[in-house]
Design goal:
This protein is of the alpha/beta class. About 30% of the residues lie in helices and about 30% in strands.
Length: about 200
């Protein structure tokens, strides 16, 4: 069983209320798209679901193989692609992935790194420093980092940012693969990306 559920969720900063009384359940095989005007709280909601920001009220529960987990305990099972995610420009793509594979404790890491570099179309550039990459190529590496440990829960903030048409098709393929064994939650204002979801949650 793979699912993510939240109830009575709210977040406020002083008198400024970003969202309130949110309730949702996302099950295995589903994709939820969160949208809304700039400043409506899309990225903040993702951070609350990830346990990186404390909600003002409400609860978030991860369900995995019969266990219920609080967000902070679910981190080993979560993948994230976000503009805030920083990689190491002084390391090569292969070194970045190898580092995060060690942090994640990924078994058979060298093979997994090779497979992912092939999957994102950057195997020929694996030994080039990330600082020489275009923004779109860095975005692809972020996906590889997020998927290293085959997470059942995948969070995407602005998923196709900086990507060309080939990169966008890659994201669409990766989302289709994610549906097989897990779920995904997307924060976006791009109308094309609304079609990625089974459900659309509008904030603001």
């Amino acid at each position: 069983m793979v699912s993510l559920e939240w109830r009575d969720l709210g977040k406020a900063y002083g008198r400024r209320v970003l969202f309130r009384d949110l309730g949702q359940r996302v099950d295995r095989g589903q994709v939820l798209v969160i949208t809304g005007p700039n400043g409506s709280g899309k990225s903040t909601l993702l951070r609350v679901l990830l346990g990186l920001t404390r909600p003002s009220r409400g609860h978030v529960t991860y369900h995995l193989r019969g266990a219920e987990l609080a967000p902070l305990l679910a981190h080993p099972y979560v993948g994230l692609v976000s503009p805030d995610l920083c990689l190491y420009d002084d390391l090569t793509a292969g070194e970045n992935l190898a580092f995060f594979a060690r942090v994640r404790g990924v078994p058979s890491a060298p093979e997994r790194v090779k497979d992912l570099l092939d999957r994102i179309g950057l195997s020929a550039r694996r030994d080039d420093r990330l600082g020489t990459y275009s923004s779109g190529m860095k975005q692809r590496v972020k996906y590889a980092c997020a998927l290293l440990h085959r997470p059942p829960f995948l969070f995407l903030d602005e998923p196709t940012a900086n990507l060309d048409e080939e990169g966008i098709r890659l994201v669409e393929e990766l989302l289709a693969e994610q549906r097989r064994d897990g779920l995904a939650i997307i924060a976006t204002n791009e109308q094309r990306e609304y079609t990625y979801g089974d459900t659309l949650l509008r904030l603001g």
